[in-house]
Amino acid sequence: MPVVIRHPLPWLVASLICLRIPAAAGQSSGAHPFGADDLSKLREAHAVAVAPDGASILYDVMYFDHTGPAKHEWHLIAYSGAPDRKLELPEHFTPSGFTSDGTALYGTLPVAEHPQLAIVPLEPSGGATRIVSLPSGVQRAAIAPDGRHYALLADPAPRDSLAAVRTVVENTQTELYVVDATGADGGWWCPALDQITEIAWSPDGSRVAVITQTPKIGHHDVRAAIDVCSRSGARRIAELRAPVSGIAWTEGGKTLAFTSTTTDVLTPDHVWTVAADGGTPIDRTPHLTGSAVGLVGDPAGDVWVEVHKGVSVEIDALRGGQLTDAIRWPGGIIARLPVFPAFTSSPAAMAFTVGDPTHTQNVARPAGSALERITHEGDSLIAHLALGDVRVVSWTAKDGTHLEGIVTFPAGYRAGTRAPFLELPHGGPEANDPLEFDFLSRFAAGLGYVVMQPQYRGSTGYGSDFLDAIYQHFGDRAYSDVNSATDEAIAQGWADPDRRSSGGAPGAS
User: Fold this and answer.
1) Residue 331 belongs to what H/E stretch?
2) pLDDT tier at 302, thresholds 50, 70, 90
3) Per-residue pLDDT, 505
């Protein structure tokens, strides 16, 4: 999979500060444009897991602060939306979900600089933290649907004794280690599979679907394979000449669903299925006008798919081999795949992370046929900001290509005013700019810029042909599309042709 860096945040913020363009006139009294101090104070919330009884949601509050990397707080909120409480967890512990009895969280905790599987009680009086240690640490952990085992992705090799004095750049070996919930009876399953990227437990907790991918980094010619792994060994299900993302069991454990592609680029964009006993994979979305970039299965066997449609992101459902519209966040995006209780004995409950141009990402839950936002991180700060309009616009380039972009205006912008203009293409190259509260666009708009985020050929959300069009045409098509965004902004009267800047380049990574 490609490494995607949407914007190099510290460098670009510093560059924009140096431009020293005054904010647009006409801002409301008592409000101020979004600036660097606001970025350090702004908070957002991401759903992490739903408790086994479906009564509460674990979520992560992320913020930047004035120094250092992003900071994290871990909170619990009732599924109804209240009350909420901050958890007192060990420093640097990163929870992944709940244990089967709901009294503790499992996740990773660094030990001697290597993350290890840790089980931490929710209540400080709940007892000591339990650790399962592997020689080179744990990359990821997933609990079985019956709550009896953990599947760990890890490198079985011992630690490099010379790591302090040398750097080795190579694909990390990733194998599957399975241990029971007490930390005993652990062992390496299917050790021949050593380039694992994704896993999913079978509904009965006896097998693990495994995606391996070679090479994992740095090469266009990717090959992927799907195996079903158990204590007795691995069975090859399918081999693909393309990347694979996401794996889930469905139809009572008879079928595996995943996302992959028939394009020449490295981004999976269609939903596929294959029989769990092996066979030929079937593309279930051959005429999809958007991009299905990942999926997850719940313990009931339902499969939920992240689908980019233009600059919007929704969650659709795979039912009976057909992808159907399911859940949207009006005027914005669902920022990641849903979370739910991990156990087959749990009630049906789901939590989502949503965002839009006037709110940071927050947690929402289903309420009838819609979603209800139940956290409000960032709202108190945004209420005191002077923010301009955000519009989704479309145009036709000179060569006839239909394009779309997001335009962010300064507060108080008056129609027909030619303002300083910033062209801000996303990185990737195979990604897109979602319709959300974009920190850099808001920051530049606070300095008086009109900001255009063009979705050039190679962006997700517009179908396979549009995505594949960047292959071997990065230097002409992608850049031509970005330049046409500037032409459109000038033609619309938004951009001053003598005050133009570019805050990135298509494909930055």
Assistant:
1) none
2) very high
3) 54
Return the closest-CA partner of residue 175 out of 136, 232, 215.
Answer: 136
Please give the Cα distance from 125 to 399 (Å, whole number): 67
Q: Are residue 294 and residue 245 in the same domain, yes or no?
A: yes
Which amino acid does the sequence have at 315?
A: I
3-class DSSP state of 32: strand
**Which CATH number belongs to the domain containing residue 465 in this structure?**
3.40.50.1820
Instruction: Tell me the Cα Rg of the chain.
Output: 24
Tell me, yes or no, whether 425 lies in a domain: yes
pLDDT in tens, 182-199: 988 999 999 999 999 999
* CA atoms within 13 A of residue 250's CA, in its CB half-sphere: 23
Q: Are 44 and 378 in contact (CB under 8 A)?
A: yes
Q: How many helices (H) and strands (E) does the chain have?
A: 6, 33
437 and 341 together in one domain: no
Domain range spanning residue 424? 9-37+385-502
Contact (CB, 8 A) for 139 and 154: yes
Please name the residues in contact with 207: beta carbons below 8 A apart, sequence gap of 6 or more: 201, 228, 229, 230
DSSP bridge pairs for 422: 451, 501
